[in-house]
Amino acid sequence: MCRLFGLTAGAARVQATFWLLDAPDSLEVQSHRNVDGAGIGFFDPAGEPVLDKQPEAAFGDQEFTHEAQHATSSAFVAHVRFATAGGRTVQNTHPFSMAGRIMAHNGGFGDLAQIDAQLGSYRDLVLGDTDSERFFALITQQTDAHGGDVAAGIVGAASWIAAHLPVSSLNAIVAAPGELWALRYPDAHALHLLERPAGRSTAAPAEGMHVRSSMSSVHAPALDGVASVVVASERLDGESDWRMLAAGELVHVRPDLSVHSEIVIAQPPVHLVPLPADNPNIDT
User: Do 42 and 79 touch, CB atoms closer than 8 A?
Assistant: First the structure.
């Protein structure tokens, strides 16, 4: 299945190059198994969303490499796609932007006509064919209905889908400038969290962050002096503090980088669609 990545550094603007290109299990590495599209979303200095995405694999996409090397932002959302709904087009490539926020999704659900009816006028926000973009439109609808509370919007949208539609997974990352939300639901696919305080490196300060891994060792000096929080479908490196989110857990990383975590949906979907036993893209 698709792979997700999110990063926030609070008020600081940073680059995500290490996680996107250089880590032992970077998004570029994962794109060899998820070849149907790749995209990076971030925020410009004015806080406006910027999307760079193409319906091709990240490892062969010069645009992905360029943005991964040069983009700076207080928050990032990136995605490499294994298409299950909607063709290989720019409109169907993650991440998506609505109402000043950026979102990407891993998983799937059915009966799009029913969610279209539920969306009402918010259906006009959907530009492509995917269930994922409809999920985001429903999050946006529910966020507005809850006075701009994004966490409540995510819970409302995921709960409605879980109660009414066949679901395999609703794993999602939503970002605003300096702020990030991540949901793992149910337990079909993994989603991991890593909190990195400033000065985490065990290497000499001049060398920057030394990342331990059974695969390789690399340095990312641009990230060493700034605290950050990372969310990803896979553990991207050999750090020991990656934590798997629980099923139904919603994490909110606030602008001060404090992390609020809560089980928000305790029950599995009413119509759970099991993954095939031989699915080669089951998350780890």
Answer: no
Q: How is the chain split into domains, by residue range?
A: 3-272
Q: Which fold has domain 3-272?
A: Glutamine Phosphoribosylpyrophosphate, subunit 1, domain 1 (3.60.20)
Q: Would you say 25 and 194 are in contact if contact means Cβ atoms under 8 Å apart?
A: no
DSSP 8-state assignment for residue 115: H
Task: Give tens-digit pLDDT for 237-281.
Answer: 988 899 999 999 999 999 999 999 999 999 999 999 986 654 434
**pLDDT for position 207:** 38
CB 249 within 8 A of CB 223: no
CB 99 within 8 A of CB 149: no
Cα(215)–Cα(222) distance, integer angstroms = 21
Helix (H) or strand (E) run with residue 157 in it:
helix 150-164
Measured in degrees and rounded to the nearest 5, phi and psi for residue 274 equal: -70, 150
pLDDT digits (tens, 9 = 90+) for 169-217: 999 999 999 999 999 999 999 999 999 988 765 433 333 444 444 343 4
Question: What amino acid occupies position 226?
Answer: V
- 71 vs 226: CA distance, rounded Å: 16
In whole angstroms, give the CA distance from residue 124 to residue 252.
Answer: 28
